[in-house]
Amino acid sequence: MRGARMSMQKQGYVLPLTAEETRRLHNQAHYLDRCTDPLLARYVRPGMHCVELGCGVGSSTQSIRQILGRTGTLTTVDQGVAFLDYTRQRLDQTGNDGVTFVHASAEYYAFPAELDLVFGRAVLHHTRDPWDVYARAAAALERGGFIIFQEPAMSAIFRHALPRGVESLWRWYIALGEQGGFHFDIGDDLARFATRAGLEIVEMAGYEPILVSDEDRSVYPKLLRVIGDQLLVAGLASREALEKVQDELEEAAREGIPMSYIPFIHCVAMRPLHAAPAGEPAH
Ligand SMILES: C[S@@+](CC[C@H](N)C(=O)[O-])C[C@H]1O[C@@H](n2cnc3c(N)ncnc32)[C@H](O)[C@@H]1O
Fold first, then answer.
1. How would CATH label the architecture of 2-270?
2. d(CA 83, CA 29)
């Protein structure tokens, strides 16, 4: 178990960018975009200077870029080269003016000063010290600048009656995440982080996507295939248990019933206009 824990820590992210995982992330982005894109449309303005943490397959990168216009800039930071390459190629199709791709971990990234927006979706919960990342992002904001994180409150999913197999999948995923030091309920901490960083909360809401199409519902069987080997290596599941749950997930997907997906919480916070810049006394 100790060896498994060490390899998880070295890996730093439970989900490799395989073809299967790319497709799953596209699916996930598709449900979350229904909430995220209107949110970005409310806060991103042409000409802003923005940083995105954790671009993944680039959905939000593309959405932000499309609003920024010719004078805005976006730096997207990801610790995975494959994710950065994928997003760069995706934006090559629709426009990547003003976009810079930075290969770095959020934990070690030095935010440029005077940002108008720091955005991250489903990334803070993967970082080693989410508060430190949040605090440094908040410190880089211009007065009136926004910080937006949209993160899971994963344990809230157990409030729902879940189809057979789905509950086992999430319990395994959470256990795997705990070994890797991830924070799957960080959505619940976002308001506290904002207040502690001296920001004003502008908007906060929860979002519970429901999987309704055949394509949507196939996300659960796919996820187990992505993490199955890691569960075996970590000693969290036997091959027999994995096969049983895989069958249950495929059956649940075939049944056609709507299924809950991870609840997410977003918190938009702003550096107050009246706040003194760092180093100046407040009046
Ligand atoms: C679940 S994906 C979310 C991607 C995208 N934001 C979205 O919502 O579709 C998490 C992304 O964050 C990146 N990531 C995970 N931990 C990170 C860290 N500590 N620093 C920078 N990027 C990280 C991963 O490589 C991956 O691209």
1. 3-Layer(aba) Sandwich (3.40)
2. 14
Extents of the domains making up the chain? 2-270
Q: What is the pLDDT of residues 138-147, one digit of tens each?
A: 999 999 999 9
> Would you say the CB of residue 106 lies under 6 angstroms from ligand 1?
yes
Strand-pairing partners, residue 102, are 77
CA of 127 relative to ligand 1 center, distance in Å: 9
- Rounded to a whole number of angstroms, the CA Rg of the chain reads 19
Which of 75, 72, 35, 63 lies closest to 203, judged by CA?
A: 35
Instruction: List the one residue out of 153, 137, 114, 123 whose CA is nearest residue 60.
Output: 123
Helix, strand, coil % (nearest 5) of the chain? 50, 20, 30
The answer to whether 54 and 77 are in contact (CB under 8 A) is yes
Which residue has the CA at smallest separation from atom 4 of ligand 1?
56
AA letter at 165: G
Q: Which residues pair with 50 in a beta bridge?
A: 74, 117
How many residues belong to the chain?
283
Confirm or reject: Cβ of 78 under 6 Å from ligand 1.
yes
Q: What is the pLDDT of residues 229-264, one digit of tens each?
A: 999 999 999 999 999 999 999 999 999 888 999 999
Pocket probe for ligand 1: among 13, 30, 39, 129, the residue whose CB has the most ligand atoms within 8 Å is: 13
Q: Is the CB of 131 under 6 A from ligand 1?
A: no
Give the Å distance between the CA of 128 and the centre of ligand 1.
13
Q: Are 31 and 258 in contact (CB under 8 A)?
A: no
